[in-house]
Model the fold of this input.
Amino acid sequence: MRSQRCVARRPYRLVTSMTGDATTASARAVLALAPVGAVGAARDAAVLVPTRRYVALDRFGPPDVMRWTTGPAPQRGEGEVLVAVEAIGLNFADTMVRRGEYRRDQSLDFTPGFEVAGHVLESGDGGPAPGTPVLVFCENGGGYADTISAPADHVFTLIEGMAPRDAAALFTQGVTAWYAVHRYGQVGEGDWVLVHAAAGGLGGMSVQLAALAGARVVATASTPAKLEIARRYGATETVLADPETLTAGVRAATGGHGADVVIDGVGGDLFMPSMRALAFGGRYLVVGSASQAPAMLDVRALMPRGQTVTGVLVARVAEQDPSEPQRAFDEIQRLVLSGELRPDVRTMPAAEIAAAHELIESRSLTGKVVLELEPA
Done:
């Protein structure tokens, strides 16, 4: 699977000039397809003006460093699919990109955006047909745009009835949660599953999927109000995310057994108390690091207790089997359409992108934020 940044692109805007009183039939068709605000005009002929609208960073920093702008549009490359974006799913990692903290030696042309949904404009042989609704996994960013060109094996189809706005909230967090619960956690009936940040997008998905698998879920969050949200998702027990009391709280909640599986998207100070609460033969799954703090582990403790610690990243699964994410994504979509899985989604217009980042960083957000783009 190729590791490639999604390329932001606008389709060609076709502009014509009129000869005499009226345009020809073909010119009228061209004009009907041209987005509002097309610039320039050709005399007596049609002119192709390739443009794109995307988010650029002037510098790393607070949310106001992001701005929507226009620029030259790259062409669809070999093995790529051109997609008109209708909705953008926001993730905590987007804020890290904006701050310049996502990668070492990160450049300003590495822009946020890891998942978008829309419909196909162009594709190559064997790709989805134009008009097909799809989700694009922008593994290396670049998704904050109204049109993108992405490798075909990063483009996943939506099942009938799934709207792009809803799909944009499901892939990164939904597929990650699916892998944590089923592929790596192997959660089964009666297991105790500890989920951190259980009122957030990934945490909430994990709670619901674990409960659907028949597990008993111990949810953590930073406030009583968020714990109540976790209970609505299906948590059996709730514990405040306090490193000083976490181990004892989980042990008490599980009747001394401990957690068979831990799904941790926070890390930092919660890691070691969670490890101490892990049962014999337990599986510890690292699905994120919202705390952005390191954690230390004496691996010698794993051997006598038969425990494992595993990192979960959708991109690594996709590298091994490019078709696997579509299977997991289809399962998530089916559960949402059946009403068994209820993602908590807040939609905002794309123009409010800075406010959306502020909301994510305030840590007051529950669920997922999706930006909706106005149609061209």
Notes: The CA atoms of residues 8 and 374 lie 16 Å apart. The chain has two domains: 7-169+343-372, 173-315. DSSP finds twelve helices and 17 strands in the chain.
